[in-house]
Here is the input.
Amino acid sequence: MERAEAWAAGSSPGALEPEEPGGLPWFHDQVVPAGSSSSRVIVHVDLDCFYAQVEMISHPELKGKPLGVQQKYLVVTCNYEARELGVKKLMNVRDAKEKCPQLVLVNGEDLTRYREMSYKVTELLEEFSPVVERLGFDENFVDLTEMVEKRLEQLQSDEPSALTVSGHVYGNQPINLHDILHIRLLIGSQIAAEMREAMYNQLGLTGCAGVASNKLLAKLVSGIFKPNQQTLLLPESSQDLIHSLNHIKEMPGIGYKTTKRLEALGISSVRDLQTFSSKILEKELGISVAQRIQKLSFGEDNSPVTPSGPPQSFSEEDSFKKCSSEVEAKNKIEELLASLLNRVCQDGRKPHTIRLIIRRYSSEKHYSRESRQCAIPSHIIQKLGIGNYDVMTPMVDVLMKLFRNMVNVKMPFHLTLLSVCFCNLKALNTAKKGTIDYYLTPSLSTTSRSGKHSFKMKDIHMED
DNA sequence: TGGGGTTAT
DNA sequence: ATAACCC
Here is the structure.
């Protein structure tokens, strides 16, 4: 029911314009040159208050109530009922309860269900086109260029509603059915609507979508109508869109540090950045950052949609007020490691590097972490797939060595965060029968089938 | 500010 | 190993 608003009337429903004598639409010969990198069709899909949605699916009795998802003393996100009552993202729990005493809070420190749902969304989008890039757990970019081309070729001139935009058009700009770029983006808006419909029907999730010619613009325009709506940006409106930003800080790609450095140069608006001397900007920020962000200020972004594929790393972290003893640290590290081992086991690939990250207490200083990493000993890697507690003890030993390398445990210390990360993930079974690798791979060679205590050839050759 | 992620240097 | 960026 709340779904109905998704299909809010779009502007400019188009009718098909005059045909060529041959019966083909006029644009059938207006193909974009093969290999042309310009004129892409990109969609940015952004789930509505994702963690809160997942919680409402898990606990249907919470639907309709103001709901916040809590991590430590923060309400990290909340549903729209809570937002209407004044709760904001990343609000202190006290402030939130004060603003909204009826607020229901659920703990969201365990990301497992969010992560699983997040990948279901990405996989659903990959069914439309394999080129899907994740951004966090709740956003995805999809490059629709090829799919749009195919639909254009299939397009029959006698379909009455074939050229009707789906959702909003930014600035209510009229669509020009004689402009091939408009037509392509319009088809993109139809695909975006299909994606959102599939997300709702198959996963029960609502979200926004933005369709534009690059990632920057697609992302910016996806947030124009919220929640659960979509917006198309036509090229003629892109300057209006970027100038609707009140500050360069709102430009994706310009973060906290760069904003501070730009402000020091007297740059605060998008137009300031557009008109600032390129030479001076390059000298201040380095040529790479300077050129990239100045292009962003014009709405230009040639970065490709890079398929994310499986994750490059797995990590678990825990923050706390104070950890000041080695025993305490070891207990927390064991907890983090136990969860990570389960995840790595499910993934199937094997990490070859392990990292320990800490945050030291500091009264005023802004957020600095330290880390130590090392290769995971090969005899441990082998045991990763099947047995779980076999690897706990040696892994904890490795992590505590990293810990003592960072923290002098003979001196007082005060930590506020511990994190363990597995990275450098490798697919385990690339070994082919008949090769040396095959006989050195425990899961394939005959010795491995007699159990985890069996003798393994690799142990001889690979002993550390 | 949580509990995650990525890429570049 | 850190620093920057994203959510």
Remarks:
- Confidence is low (pLDDT under 50) at residues 1-26, 432-464 of chain A.
- The first strand of chain A starts at residue 42 and ends at 47.
